[in-house]
Amino acid sequence: MPCEVKPRFVVLYGSQKGQAESLAEGIAEVAEEHGLVAELSCLSQNEKYNLEKENAPVVFIVSTTGDGEPPDNALQFVKRIKKKTLSTDHYKHLRYALLALGDTNYANFCNCGKTIERRLQELGAKQFYATGYADDGVGLEVVVDPWLEGLWKAIKGALSNMDSDRTESVETVSKFATAASSSASATPTAVSDLRPAFPAGSPGLAPQSHGTASVSTSAPETQTGDAGVPHVALAASLTHSLPPLSQSSLNVPALPSPYLDVSLQEIIGPLNKEALHEVPISRAVKLTRGDSVKMALLLELDISAHPMMTYHPGDSYDVLCPNRTAEVEDMLHRLGLHDQRNHKVHISLRKDTKKKGAQVPSYISHNISLLYLLTWCLEIRSVPKKAFLRALVEHTWDGVQRRRLQELCSKQGAADYNLYVRDPSLSAMELLTAFPSCSPPLSLLIEHLPKLQPRPYSAASSCLRYPGKLHFVFNMVEFPASPGRPAGRRGLCTGWLFDLINPVLVFPEKAESSSSPALPKIHVSLRPNSSFRPPSDLSAPFIMVGPGTGVAPFIGFLQQREMERKANPEAIFGETWLFFGCRHRDRDYLFREELEGFVSSGTLSQLMVCFSRDDQEEASTSAAARPRYVQHNLLLNSQRITDILLKQNGYFYVCGDAKNMAKDVNDTLMQMIQTELQLDQLDAMKRLAVLREEKRYLQDIWG
């Protein structure tokens, strides 16, 4: 008998840090269980797919990066579909579903997904399943899990409709979507970003999609640990749960397919390390004073030996930092491979893997040692994903610990996962320490730990003012102790940089020494930012909002403006405003002398500062309330700011914290437009959207 041909569909992804790619691979892997064949491609691999002729359903999984930008591997695709020469029926044959990943802590939530969907619809494509907008700010799984659960029925419905009549209108597809939604027996998950709600699995039942499996683990009255001693949990923690979770049946993800073979070989001769550009740190200055809550540091890099590393104010660049030596040593000991740390790592694909699109990670070179792999290639501090926890279950021999890992990766344990793993940013090593009976192989870490990402920093200087130099500023990041972290730790890159510069660090209370120790070097690469730059029109006014270290790029803006004023004394220059804020005037006022110098020279038209903690302490002696935060100062200057933005075609820049400050500034700006123009909230939002589209409201923010 001839083999039955399984229906096919296409999965396309655009991913910056691997989350969208991982989800797309997961869909492709379990497609066979649903009697389907998935053709998986990255959006950048345009030679592997052809949407112009595609007659099967297409599933897009896309993330958003930066200020609402597409991931690097989706950028060209977005540019292609945005061509104005394309007709409105260019994709009239196309049927698609889309899952967008984003973070509501940042502006332009899921903007890449929204851009792709809007353009597909403008070109005639029809949706066969409601779009999901997953928010990493609250946990992607809140939307991702129900979306994936309902996807399979939607794909089969789309295939049925497309087979019966390929020219049928979207009305038939809408009927399917409505039927699928109303026939779901489970309670729909309430997610505001989803149009029809996706079916959510009932606790204790095994959904027949998304590769989940029901694990019956109704706990006995007492659980026995690895020493045979009954365990009674008095309080929930990373390693122990309480009823009802501890007595519930669990819906856990399918076991991820292993796909790598890893072996260690003794090295004969030296390893070839990847060539990296190194630049020396020529100066390091502590900017904060006294007992400030945060320590801010300025580093000056000497880039004179690299003439191609030209930059503009507003650009940023990556610092390549290694994992901490002590943590790498701990991981080597934990894996039982410390004696083989200098052995060469050989990685190949398993011949029996079922993983779709499996490949050896491209960022791992062929000729490296195990020590180099753990130091420079893998993000061993990354927060373990649920798929990683699920894989760890198979390598955990203690029953109580196995059960707890199952809980943490299950739907029923989502709250515990967020509380004990995600929210405290628990690392892979900290998790393994908490579960001592878990002994994963090295291959599992390579399969599940992401690439060690470089850390971006904004340029805090102008090359017109400092030729051959590059400045940047950072706060020392501190992670507090948590249930899975007995002691606090510093940020990976900021802690490493501080250790490097500590011998040459200049303190504000002391004069610079004429002699200094040998200058340390770091690896850097430039990240040009074509939009977050001062206006090209010198006469255009612009407003800058940068509290704390968010002021850094604006120092570069103003240094550039000062040099331009000197070079063009007859030119007409637009107004410049800076809104700066910090805790205390005498401890945290970064670049105070330089900023006041900009005002004196006329480079900076208005400097608005506020000090949130000083104001609290002085409240009892001050009759009038002073502005505590930058948004309060914005409100005090509402009329002039809206006039600059809406009547003088000015620019508005924001740099700093995404979670609080950027949101508050955005809300304040919308309130100001409402008040000054007598508009309702919707119209004010539209005005802000126009400013963004015209690239006159720009953000450089971080979480």
UniProtKB/TrEMBL annotation:
Its EC number is 1.16.1.8. This is Methionine synthase reductase. The keyword Ribonucleoprotein does not apply. It comes from Sander lucioperca (Pike-perch). GO terms for cellular component: cytosol. Residues 187-227 are annotated as: Disordered. Residues 209-225 have a biased composition (Polar residues). One of its GO terms (biological process) is homocysteine metabolic process. Keywords: Amino-acid biosynthesis, FAD, Flavoprotein, FMN, Methionine biosynthesis, NADP, Oxidoreductase, S-adenosyl-L-methionine. It comes from the Eukaryota. InterPro entries: CysJ-like_FAD-binding (IPR003097), FAD-bd_FR_type (IPR017927), Flavdoxin-like (IPR001094), Flavodoxin/NO_synth (IPR008254), Flavoprot_Pyr_Nucl_cyt_Rdtase (IPR001709), Flavoprotein-like_sf (IPR029039), FNR_nucleotide-bd (IPR039261), NADPH_Cyt_P450_Rdtase_alpha (IPR023173). Its cofactor is FAD; FMN. GO terms for molecular function: [methionine synthase] reductase (NADPH) activity; flavin adenine dinucleotide binding; FMN binding. Residues 274-535 form the FAD-binding FR-type domain. It is an enzyme of class 1 (oxidoreductase). The keyword S-adenosyl-L-methionine applies.
